[in-house]
User: Fold this.
Amino acid sequence: MRAEQAAKATSDRIDIDVSLVARLIVRQFPQWADLPIKPVEPAGWDNRTFHLGPHMVVRMPSAERYAAQVEKEHRWLPRLAPRLPLPIPVPLAMGAPGEGYAWPWSVYGWIEGETATIGRIANLGEFAVELAGFLTALQRIDAGGGPPPGPHSFFRGGSLSVYDAETRRAIPELDGRIDAEAATAVWEAALAATWRGSPVWVHGDVAWGNLLVNHGWLTAVIDFGCSAVGDPACDLAIAWTLFDRKSRDAFRKALPLNDATWARGRGWTLWKALITLAGQVNVNPLEAKTPRQVIEDVIADHEHRGK
Assistant:
């Protein structure tokens, strides 16, 4: 996302605070009106999240473009949860617009754990294999009737071509800061690696902030707002955004995928890293180091695996 897009995305969001959540709870779920409410840290981007007592959490879309995810999660997560090897959020109640808030919102059971930063993971290779097992189980669940890719998933599970123009704008903008020729080669290889499989369930946003650990081990996967049924390549970005080369190899080996899917996974990762870098490079050079490193790792992987 370039700087002007990031500014617009920020301006689209509304203020959501404890007072608003409390008013909504009192009016719509009075049985929980006496429970304390406090923000969850980190606060989140797509949704604002609040503790509701010790065992529940309130999630509220921060902008209209996230609102369709609420009904989707309430419909599908209870069906997915029993078929998965790790806990995922289970919705307890769906709130309605009110008190000046325009969209549906959710109450979930609270899942204990910390976000999966590198320092909290006991063994990165074993973590990668366990995550691969979770994704494999997700992909094996019957996808019939599931939500196809679209705006609700930001086209996760769909074709990379949706982001072709955006990617091809970002590469020359960053020429001199990245290897533009090599990045173009990665992108074109990803576009050429056509997906011909049957639709499978995808999480859509497999990132360290949506993976929970306890005592160093993966214990839950959260935030299915970008879930859909389609191409599983979008769920591979974690291979370059969290894993090192050894754990990345373990992750790939543990997944039932072919070279073309891996190439498309590089494409999804490259697109996101490019737009992130383009939005930060002139605003926050320190934060720009991470997406630049991801781009370098994606290029190296492309070249190492024989393109």
